[in-house]
Amino acid sequence: MNKYCITLAALAASLPLSAQNRPSAGAVATSPAGGSVQAATAPAVGNRRRAPERPKGPTPHLADGTVDLSGVWNGGGPIGDIAQGLKNGEKAEMTPAGERLFKSRQSKDDPEANCLPTGVPRIAPYPWRIVQTPTHVFFLFEGNIHSFRQIFVDGRKHPDDPDPTWYGHSIGHYEGNSLIVDTIGYNDKFWFDFAGHPHSESLHTIEKYTRSDLGTLEVETQIIDPVYYVKPFTLHFTATLRPKEELMEYICQENQVDAQHLIGGAGLN
């Protein structure tokens, strides 16, 4: 059995039964326009049910005309490898320092596999909810430690010297049907994906969340990190609305017995 099979088997075993029994999130495929898209439906695998159809309808708006991004979503960021979401013609070209760190990483050390937050742009393979208020937007994650992101939309600026954190300091504003999120102040602890792509504390992300219709959330993330990457690059992923689902309680630390058994370097090859 190769490392890819061992890693996926261990990761699947670490999922709570509630997550294993959820409908499949849909296969990832390359779109003609570049990047990757999440299929609205997927064939049943084993005893899993077919993924629900993506809801259809116009983009909803709040009473003041602001795009309504609220709801439970699934998908929206890299899991296996950020290359799955690169736009056409773009590369995540690492500096020599980035290459050295990338090649040194071991599967067992993946923070996400050890129940730690995913950071940005990675999304765990579990549903997540967007909650909007006039001053904040919150992302609530089912996976790992029930972590959350807060995005300030009240017009404030970044602090001059933010304390490094897993999700950084995020400020946002609306442009039409999109939320633009600018984030700095990350720590260097999370990985971009299972493959082990690194980042430094100089990481700066600019995200664009566009609700193109009722059931579709297009997520575009520009990665800027001059320490570990030669130049900025942009990722594109799609999340699907799950209107009949709620976030389940899942505390990964209570039964995490798999990561220490992962053998070999990080990555899917």
Give structural notes.
The chain is mainly beta and 269 residues long. The protein has one domain. It contains three helices and eleven strands. The strands form two sheets. Strands 3-4-5-6-7-8-9-10-11 form a nine-stranded mixed beta barrel. A hairpin with a 5-residue loop joins strand 1 (28-30) and strand 2 (36-38). The protein is globular and about 50 Å long. The model is unreliable at 1-48 (pLDDT under 50).
Top keywords for this entry?
269 residues; mainly beta; 9-stranded mixed beta barrel; 11 strands; 9% helix; 25% strand; globular; disordered N terminus
Let me know the number of strands.
Answer: 11
Cα radius of gyration in angstroms = 18 Å
Helical content stands at under 10%
Mean pLDDT figure: 83
Topology, please?
Elements: H1 3-14, H2 17-20, E1 28-30, E2 36-38, E3 71-74, H3 96-104, E4 128-132, E5 136-141, E6 148-152, E7 169-175, E8 178-184, E9 204-213, E10 216-224, E11 233-241
Parallel strand pairs: 6-7
Antiparallel strand pairs: 1-2, 3-4, 3-11, 4-5, 5-6, 7-8, 8-9, 9-10, 10-11
